[in-house]
Amino acid sequence: MVRSALARSVLVALLPCVLAVACNSSGDEASATETTTSTASATGSTTGSTTDATTDDTSTSTSGDTSTSTSTSGDTSTSTTGESTTTTTGESEGDTSTSTTGEIGPMVDVSDPQLYSFEFTPDEADAAASQALATQLAYLDTQVEPLGKLVVYLHGAGAPQTCGSKAHGQVLAGMGFHVFSPCYISDYGVGNCGDNIGGCRLEAFEGVDHHPFVDITPENSAEVRIVKGLQYLQEQHPGGDWAYFLDGDQPRWEKIVISGISHGASSSGVIGMNRIVDRVVMLSGPLDSGQAWLKGQPMTAIDRFFAFTHTADNQHPGHLQSFTDMMLVGEPTAVDGAEPPYSDSHRLMSSADTDNGHVAVQAGGSSPKDGNNEYVYMPVWRYLYGVEP
Q1: What does the pLDDT look like over 298-355, one tens digit per residue?
Q2: Pairing verdict, β 97-98 and 178-181
Q3: Which of 117, 119, 140, 341 is packed most tightly, with the most Cβ within 10 A?
Q4: Per DSSP, which regions of the chain are E strands?
């Protein structure tokens, strides 16, 4: 059963009365390589830069972000920029809902357990969107108990055809998360931002002027894309109660895990510095070694920042330096052959065999698997995202 934000408020107000008369409730509680000459164009494509990505997982976007080094990156997509479809594995019916958050919501209809998958472009969700109009992804798996948290997963640098990773999104949904991967402007080339890369990243997130090199309007910002995307998902799939993660016209950040790979990892770090989120999970990043934002005072407590890097990634030394600059909890700790909680460190690394160290830490074709074809890093991801084994 779906309840709007207003209905939820009314229910909270009446709850003492309901309990007093012993009434029954109908629902349970429930990379692309960047050069220093790239610029952002009006269509979200890269102008005056060289973008070179190797393909890995046939379900994800390019990723990668360098200002001082060059790397190959991530997964590719079978979707075409500007095309989109909204797909689900079926519509749920009935009046069964669940929440595990200790409060009313999100009221997720679980009467028809399945993985719900959505693909849509930013301008489908918001007619004002004019840049970075590729395919956005969202997932919710009602075969598992909802956690009552949303993971916003940010893609890497460039202008990908699909924003995010299908494989990683489905893994996160399988843990019980709502998952949304918005398209955002990430093709400006961080080398063009000088000693204020954080300003470029913050403008791409907020759509507010923070750096003279980029000019990103609110409707093309990641934060507005998150709001419009959740509103669209609520319309398409009210049984998912996607609106639970909205507070009016703003994201309900305290219920949101911000995460991403490469450029998206660094941008996730900047967001955690400027918003109070549930958690920050940075894969193959951040790379902005020596940048001022890394040593700033975060709004999200630093013990809620987590990072994961691979030693075969040529950006690995830069990642370790950024972990130090941010003063992440613990020391660099290898996960290979170890079990959670990895000495309680938030600076994790691996040397497992892979054909691409930069994207190995994200689910997909380059992420190592065991003899049972299961991801070796599944315990690592559960730890990073705060999910009990």
Answers
A1: 999 999 999 999 999 999 999 999 999 999 999 999 999 999 999 999 999 999 999 9
A2: unpaired
A3: 140
A4: 39-40, 46-47, 97-98, 108-109, 115-120, 135-141, 150-154, 162-163, 178-181, 246-247, 250-251, 256-261, 279-283, 305-310, 333-334, 347-350
